[in-house]
């Protein structure tokens, strides 16, 4: 099967983008809890994210870098790596948008996008060779971890997770997936995280899913299905120029795949999430290749001047100094 990668990217320091953003802000009440500055800044990890795909996933069919009229100065398009502008796939009535939820919910509209695609982020790096079956089963089912978990209450983003789960509970009963094939939900590949699923059993509804910070494998047809099931909800969300607490996210499609049983279990340890401040641990993982995938998460409190240089040096040594 042809497997594509979709990777949204933005350089928030771009002057033209700032002007466009300020014009939109003049007509919008911004929820600053969901639109902090780190959502729009570039930490230069994209260069290594793409280099890691070239090195460790040469089987990928196409890599679509989604931008809003932007192009990294070092980026070279070829038959595999392509830039796709927002205007080329997002309906005009939703543009311009500065809302990642809108961009990702409409990504399935990219012309030529395969039925099988992986949604990346620009802070994700492949850390050692991966194969297609790390992301999709032989019969095309997305690889994922189906771990039930209560929704955390320490982040404003949880509003969006809750909105997703309300939709999922509308279409599925708690036991639907378990009755269909319980081994997908209580699978030894999930390790100690199975405790979360066990503790969620007393609740009548689906309380939520564990959300790993990792690229998500998707069947494009499931996006089409959700847009058919909830056209008004997705249309309303897509009109939000910036993130709001009423949004839904692409995780809604992920949850649909999980609860319908349309996925194949994967080890929970396949990827590793790091805060950018964990410099020593990240560099050690990069050099030793301990995990297949790394998420190097930026945050509003990150000290870029201190933390980024040694991380970028380690990534440069691994991917660009051969």
What does the secondary structure layout of this molecule look like, with pairings?
Elements: E1 3-8, H1 15-25, H2 46-56, E2 63-67, E3 81-85, H3 100-105, E4 116-119, E5 124-126, E6 143-144, H4 158-171, H5 176-181, H6 194-200, E7 216-219, H7 220-229, H8 231-238, H9 251-259, E8 264-265, E9 271-275, H10 279-288, E10 293-297, H11 304-319
Parallel strand pairs: 1-2, 1-4, 2-3, 6-8, 9-10
Antiparallel strand pairs: 4-7, 5-10
Fold and architecture overview:
The chain is an alpha/beta fold. 34% of the residues lie in helices and 13% in strands. The chain is built from eleven helices and ten strands. Helix 2 runs parallel beside helix 11 and helix 7 packs across helix 8. The model has no long low-confidence stretch (mean pLDDT 93). It has a five-stranded mixed sheet. It has a three-stranded mixed sheet with strand order 5-10-9. A two-stranded parallel ribbon has the order 6-8. The protein has a single domain, classed as Spore Coat Polysaccharide Biosynthesis Protein SpsA, Chain A (Alpha-Beta Complex), CATH 3.90.550. Strand 9, helix 10 and strand 10 form a beta-alpha-beta unit.
């Amino acid at each position: 099967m042809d497997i594509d990668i979709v990777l949204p990217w933005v350089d928030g320091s771009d002057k033209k983008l700032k002007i466009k953003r300020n014009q939109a802000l003049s007509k919008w009440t911004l929820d600053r809890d969901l639109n902090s500055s780190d959502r729009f800044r570039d930490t230069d990890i994209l260069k290594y994210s793409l280099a890691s795909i070239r090195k460790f996933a040469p089987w990928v069919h196409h890599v679509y870098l989604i931008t809003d009229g932007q192009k990294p100065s070092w980026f070279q398009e070829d038959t595999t790596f392509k830039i796709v502008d927002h205007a080329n796939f997002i309906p005009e009535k939703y543009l311009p948008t500065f809302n990642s939820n809108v961009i990702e919910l409409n990504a399935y509209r990219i012309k030529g996008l395969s039925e099988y695609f992986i949604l990346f982020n620009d802070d994700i790096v492949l850390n050692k060779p991966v194969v297609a079956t790390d992301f999709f089963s032989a019969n095309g089912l997305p690889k994922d971890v189906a771990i039930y978990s209560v929704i955390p209450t320490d982040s404003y983003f949880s509003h969006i997770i809750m909105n997703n789960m309300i939709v999922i509970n509308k279409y599925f009963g708690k036991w639907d997936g378990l009755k269909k094939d319980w081994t997908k939900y209580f699978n030894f590949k999930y390790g100690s995280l199975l405790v979360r699923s066990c503790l969620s059993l007393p609740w009548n509804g689906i309380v939520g899913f564990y959300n790993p910070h990792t690229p998500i494998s998707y069947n494009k047809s499931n996006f089409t299905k959700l847009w058919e099931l909830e056209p008004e909800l997705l249309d309303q969300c897509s009109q939000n120029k910036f993130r709001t607490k009423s949004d839904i996210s692409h995780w809604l499609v992920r949850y649909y795949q999980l609860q319908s049983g349309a996925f194949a279990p994967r080890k929970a340890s396949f990827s590793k999430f790091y805060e950018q401040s964990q410099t020593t641990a990240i560099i050690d993982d990069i050099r030793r290749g301990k995990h297949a995938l790394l998420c190097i998460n930026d945050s509003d409190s990150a000290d870029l001047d201190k933390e980024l240089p040694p991380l970028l040096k380690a990534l440069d040594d691994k991917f660009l100094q051969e």
